[in-house]
Each structure stands twice: as structure tokens, then as C-alpha cells.
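INPUT
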Amino acid sequence: MRELAASTISDHVAEMCEQANIYLGEDVFSALKDALETEESPTGKEVLKQLIENVEIARDEQIPICQDTGFAVFFVEWGQEVHLTGGSLEEAINAGVKRGYEEGYLRKSIVSDPLYERKNTGDNTPAVIYTDIVPGDKVKISFAPKGGGSENMSAVKMLKPSDGEAGFIDFVVNHVKAAGPNPCPPIVVGVGIGGTFDKVAVQAKKALFRKVGESNPNSKFADLEKRIKDKINDLGVGPQGFGGRNFALAVHIEDYPSHIASMAAAVNINCHACRHLEKII
Amino acid sequence: METKKIKAPLTDEDVMALKAGDNVLISGVIYTARDAAHKKLVELMDKGEELPIDLTGQFIFYVGPTPEKPGQAIGSAGPTTSGRMDAYTPQMLEKGMKACIGKGLRSQVVKDALVKHKGLYLAAVGGAGALLSKKIKKSEVVAYPELGPEAIRRLEVEDFPATVVNDAYGNDLYAEGAKEYAR
Ligand code: SF4
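OUTPUT
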């Protein structure tokens, strides 16, 4: 049994919070540069130039890419041969978030009570944490700071199996169209299909952790991702919604087996500041 | 592509000279306010009390920046979603506000109020917080410090980039831009 101290988890998490908010991943950065190549609208081009410059300024001067440094979302794959010592996983992650957001001068955007007091917790905790127990003696932590503007533009719909591919495409495209300029396009569209009401939403979130440029391993879904992306870009909404060719940088679909009576679908949108980072400990 | 340089605050003539789709660079003094500050301002208006800032001719930028590091004027400072301010915007315009800067769609009520009071809605590039922070030369909290990132700040900006989305003639770049590139 491998032993791992809770404080080690906290150290890694604190560092990940700072890094993810300052350095945009190469995958998203090159997608932005590709978008600049294909953009036809002059204002759209100007937006993309600003976004590329923004990423460079953030990196060179250690300024957060976006002021909304997000809800801290984690997917943890915990090897079942690993024994955590000195605290619980939840405490360890939250301690890391607290330190990372404080030391990194990141914005604290979490309020304790969603309806009545809405008082800021002051340290951006608690995080949202999903844990899977997996074989092996490694721990993989994936982190994404999820901005509120794009998160608000999300939806779950329990489609009927008879809605078929066309109904599924319509749901995704119409939803993204209604979101329009709000989620800071160009966007990455996370889509879940299958599973239960709750599972499909988590799948859509998981889809946003995938590297931009990678496709669903099933060729049918990979092809569907491309077709939906083209349909979304044909809306003409463009960067920031000012009109143009690049509304979506990517569409990622995560599928899961379905009940015979259901076809759950979910859309979780991410902005161009599609920040995600993973670490294997 | 032409970019117009404009000075804040604005006069009615300045507003009428700008059209949806214009790219501008703003220099001068602007103020910040988000949901919580708007709520407080509108409550004061309803009670007929004096506001902590004079809105006449002013720009309001919807932003909640990250904390500034020592030596920085301000932290990362991009626009937040404007729709959350829709309920307050007509009253802000009535009190003299001339322009607001955010990102995303506005309600028809706001668009009508912009026409009625001669106002502008501009979008700055959402998520370009690091870049926009470099255009802000000075920042000072002038009201509601207890609101943290939602406090009202007075900003001195230089060549702050934004695009006119809704003008005082009723034009809407979000609707027209998408139409032009749809296929
Ligand atoms: S949607 Fe994304 S880029 Fe836009 S303000 Fe929110 S976190 Fe920043």
C-alpha cells in the first residue's frame, strides 16, 4: 500500500490553481491561433488578436487570463493501492484551493448560501470534487476553474430515444445559439449523452477537460462532433458574438450507456478561457 | 478597420456620433459597478437619496477584478455578463449614465432605454482580463468597499478597447453581425 500525505495533495492543488489561471493550455492557445487564420470578419479577427495577446500578457506578467477565476472543479482518479494519511481528501483539496487562490491573487467567487445570504466564503472554497476509485497506485488530479458566465449557459434535457440524431443535434445547436455572445465565444462545447439526469451533466463537464483537438474514440461520435461544430459555426455568431466564422473552437461529446426509455442530453459551455490542468502523483 | 478614439465622460453628441459595430478606444475616467453595487444605487434612487457618484455623462464598466498584486493598478479586469444588470440599467440611464461596458445580450427594455436617453452599450472582449488590465492606469475604490470585488471603483483608462453593440438609434450588432456571417 502506497502512503500519500494529505499535505502533498494540498501542495499540488495550490500550485495547480495558480498555474491553470495564468497559463492557458497549448491546446486551446493553438486553437485560438487557428481560428485567427480562418476568421473572415474584421472585428472577429480583432477579437481573436486581443485574445491571443491576452494569453501572452497573462503568461509573461503572471496576471490571471480572466478575472473570473472560477469555481474550482476537480476530477480525481484515486488508485485503490494508495492510502491517504493526515486528513480527508476533501479537506486536502479545499486547503489547496484556499492557499492557491490567496497566494495567486485570484478572485474569490463563491458564496456560502446560494439563496438567502450569498455571503462570500472568502477563500473560493468549497471546491466541486468528483472522485473515481481506479486500479493502481497513482492519483490523477484534473482541475478546471469554471467561470460563471459560461457555466450559466448550460442545460440538461431528457430527450426521447425517438428524437434520434436529429433531435440531439437540434437540442445542442439551439441551446448554443440562444447562449449567443454571453459565454465569451469562441467557446468549447461540452456535451453529454446517455446515462441518468445527473450522470449526463457530469459527462458534459468531463468533456470540457478533454484536450481541444482530441476526438471521441468512437468514430461515429467523432464524426458527429465535427458536424455539430460546423452547424454551430454556420450560425455566424463568431468571436464574442460580433459576427464571424468562429463561434465554437470545438465540440466534445462524452457518451454513456442509456436506459431503454431515455436519451439524456446535456450541454455545458466553456469560454475560450478553457482552463484545465492535470497532474499524476 | 477603423478605430475611433473617444474621451470619457461622454456628451449626447459623442453618443450620437457612434454606431453599432464601431470599434473604439476609450481614454479618461470610468466607473465600475456589478450586481450588488447596482442594487444599492437603485435603492438610493428609489428613496430619492444622493448617490455616492455623479452619473452624468459617465461610463459604467461591469467588472469584478482579481485582487491586484503589489505594484499593479488593478488585477485581471474583463467584463462580466451584462444581462444581470438589465433590471437596473433604465434607471441608471435616467440618472445620466451615458454608456455601459460589459459582454453579452441586453433586454429589449434596455435597448429601448438607450434610444430614449441617448445611451450606448459597448462590449469589451470577455475573458481578455489580463490585456484590459494593462489599459487601466489607476484604480481607486470610491464606494462600497465592503463589497470586495463588487465595490465601485474609479478607473483612469487609456486606449481601452471596446465595440459598440447597441447604439442610440436602436441598432444591435449581435443581431446584425450574426446575420451577415450566417450560412
Ligand atoms: S465566460 Fe469565461 S472568459 Fe468569459 S468572463 Fe467568464 S470565465 Fe472569463
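end of record. Strands of chain B lie at 3-8, 23-32, 59-61, 99-102, 120-123, 136-143, 152-166.
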